[in-house]
Amino acid sequence: MASRAVVVALLLAAVSASCARAQLQEKFYAATCPSVEEVVRKEMVRALSLAPSLAAPLLRMHFHDCFVRGCDGSVLLDSANKTAEKDAKPNVTLRGFDFVERVKTAVEKACPDTVSCADVLALIARDAVWLSKGPFWEVPLGRRDGSVSMSNDTKALPPPTANITQLTQLFAAVNLDIKDLVVLSAAHTIGTSHCFSFSDRLYNFTGMDNASDIDPTLEPFYMEKLKSKCASLDDNTTLVEMDPGSFKTFDLDYFKLVSKRRGLFHSDGALLTDSFTRAYILRHATGAFKDEFFADFGVSMVKMGNANVLTGTQGEIRKKCSVVNH
């Protein structure tokens, strides 16, 4: 197991390099809103104590924000004609928008016109992981909010049906490498998914649409368990735990599941088709390198959080996260 000192040193080095590129700073609000993290965490503790299952959707929302137009809070914007990012098919199952608005209101009360929605969302995502017994990392801040949100742009989101080539390309588009891909995929250790995101693996893998048209890479016993929950391709409401048994706890069980061909999505199983991602999965499936993985996750989250950010005089600081100021 890596020593704590080495882990911390690696994390700090990566964070420092990433921040220099993105012009973000951990203490960005030290003078203008020193209580921002405390305000966000207070709201997060309160919310997750009542609804711990909210952690995964909030983390996912940050992912979906950063992969589309960069981490600019655009996923939070409403559209009168339903053409915003949140209206696109990959985002219709996102939840927690009202909670983000509640946190933003609390931040505005403490520090009016100071903290961006993009930064609030980044802090929420970090605390969602930490309060689910996952790693803690310092979040570089200073993002500004964008004013454009278009549903068509969500094609940049990695779909659950993606193979390793597609995944690698989509991650590279936001300056994330193959290691970031396998590390961040482990966010699937918390949360649930609707059957329609993976049911083609159970009933319509090659387009034949029958009971025998199954994904041969999915472990048979696990497939039967999924079929007992998702009765058909038409099931649009049933939720399935992505990490059965510990879907509210951020741990290493995801790697154990994927190593046994029990990853829920095509994209999870695809990680076994690349030598690097496969080796990473098998290493962490042992459960012996928790500190190492937690440090890796923090590093990759910081990198993702730097994706095409608006800083300085770019963008704006929204008063409400769902609408632009003008």
List keywords for this structure.
single chain; 326 residues; mainly alpha; two-stranded antiparallel ribbon; 13 helices
> Which strand order do you get reading across the main beta sheet?
1-2
Structural class: mainly alpha
Mean pLDDT: 93
- Please report which band the strand proportion falls in: under 5%, 5-15%, 15-25%, 25-35%, 35-45% or over 45%: under 5%
Describe the protein in words.
This protein is mainly α. Helix content is 44%, strand content 2%. It is built from 13 helices and two strands, in the order H-H-H-H-H-H-H-E-H-H-E-H-H-H-H. The chain has a two-stranded antiparallel sheet with strand order 1-2. Helix 4 crosses helix 5 and helix 7 packs parallel to helix 12. The longest helix has 19 residues. The radius of gyration is 19 Å and the shape is globular. The protein starts with a helix and ends in a 21-residue tail after the last helix. About 4% of the residues have low confidence.
